[in-house]
Write a structure and sequence with these properties.
alpha/beta; Rossmann fold; 5-stranded mixed beta barrel; two-stranded antiparallel ribbon; Uridine phosphorylase; EC 2.4.2.3; Nucleoside_phosphorylase_d
Length: 287
């Protein structure tokens, strides 16, 4: 089938509409970051940079690190942006943009999110590395897609929903990260567990300012939740859609975050540029 112009949206140069890049601009290993400025922090480690572009909040640098071709790409904040990024990255490698038809075979990307997060366990210190074994989505992005979740994923989502007691309008979903990429990123100083992805920073993560929140006890409940050997370790805003959509399209997806707040201890980092650069170098060396 040919994808019509209204569905596969390209710019006047034939590039994907939001990212503003073409297939030749990206590697098959892509480091995803929320913050635009973090792209330059990653590419500062590259041996060379062969591509640089910026369109809206999407900054893209591609180069080599110790002989391996790598792309760093900013996504902005939230699962709505991840929906755009994953679909357009997949289109770059799996759709012939000129003919608007699927390419034969499948190109699988390695998509590694390097982010920041709030820690939900008192025993994990600020500036720790947090690796997501699973992502629980309390956003709604994956519900728009015909995704076949595994029995384990459905069980974790159902158990957490029953334990926490989210408002009726919220239906959590769960998607596991890539075992292949997780094995590369595990280490003795890396904490692994379930990540909860929210659709916002304030009330969706239990913060209460002038408007209040319907989820005032969500953090305490999440701290206590366990499923088999899994516990919830952090809150962030992108991984659920990354894992669910990326995996459904045939890509390997994982998230590793720097914890910059410990919610149970009510601590927040006083500055984490040095620690973030350490995490970036850790990831580059491991991949």
């Amino acid at each position: 089938m040919k994808y019509p112009a209204s569905e596969l949206v390209l710019d006047s140069k034939g590039m994907v509409y939001h990212l503003g890049i073409s297939p030749k601009d990206i590697a098959t290993t892509i480091l995803l970051v929320g913050d635009q400025d973090r792209v330059a922090a990653i590419s500062s480690f590259f041996d060379d940079i062969t591509h640089q572009s910026k369109h809206r909040e999407f900054v893209c640098h591609t180069g080599t690190y110790k002989g391996k071709r790598v792309t760093a790409l900013s996504t902005g904040i939230g699962t709505d942006n991840i929906d755009i990024v994953i679909n357009e990255l997949d289109a770059l490698v799996n759709i012939d943009l000129e003919n608007r038809e699927n390419r034969p075979g499948l190109t699988s990307l390695n998509l590694i999110r390097i982010g920041t997060c709030g820690i939900l366990q008192a025993d994990i210190d600020v500036h720790s590395y947090i690796l997501s074994s699973h992502a629980i989505g309390i956003d709604n992005v994956a519900h728009f897609y015909p995704i076949a979740f595994s029995p384990e994923e459905r069980s974790i989502a159902s158990a957490l929903d029953s334990f926490v007691g989210f408002p009726d309008e919220i239906t959590p979903y769960c998607s596991a990260g890539s075992d292949i990429l997780a094995k590369k990123l595990k280490g003795k100083n890396v904490h692994t567990g379930i990540t909860v992805t929210s659709s916002g920073f304030y009330a969706p993560q239990g913060r209460s300012l002038r408007l209040g929140t319907r989820t005032s006890n969500v953090n305490e409940k999440l701290e206590q939740f366990a499923f088999n050997h899994h516990r919830v370790v952090n809150f962030e805003m992108e991984s659920s859609a990354l894992f669910a959509l990326g995996k459904a399209m045939g890509h390997e997806c994982i998230t590793i975050c720097l914890g910059i707040a410990n919610r149970p201890r009510m601590e927040f980092s006083k500055g984490y540029e040095k620690e973030m650069n350490g995490l970036i170098e850790y990831v580059l060396d491991r991949i």
